[in-house]
Amino acid sequence: MSERDLSDQEEIHSKVLRAGRRTYFFDVRSTKAGDYYLTITESKKFTHDDGSFHYKKHKIYLYKEDFDAFKENVEEMMDFIINEKGSEVISERHQKDFKKEEVAAELPVENTTTSTSSFTDVSFEDI
Hints:
By secondary structure, this protein is an alpha+beta fold. The protein has one domain (3-108): Roll (Nuclear Transport Factor 2, Chain: A), CATH 3.10.450. It has helices at 3-9, 67-85, 100-106; strands spanning 11-19, 22-30, 36-47, 53-63. The chain has a 4-stranded antiparallel sheet with strand order 1-2-3-4. The chain is flat and about 55 Å long. Residues 110-124 have low confidence and may be disordered.
């Protein structure tokens, strides 16, 4: 095992956040010099057609000298999202009582006598 792997294993404090298919790990680790830094790992589960699965992981290393700027940027982005879209989750995937019929009922009805488009002509870029 390399020195980097050994230092990466030295967890000081950890917290887990489960969010659907994603799990976020927040780990305080120690540098070789004995200082602390934060790793944030996103782990996402992917299931194959045959029932087997695998995980994809993405990791961010965050050092103390970047904490203030990182925190400011995250807070600014979260505030922007809440101010623009509110705090209600609008993705049907996250609504426990979601029914596809409700969305169809909310969509505007097109005049089918003048429309030549079909369902396959729908653009999904805005979804």
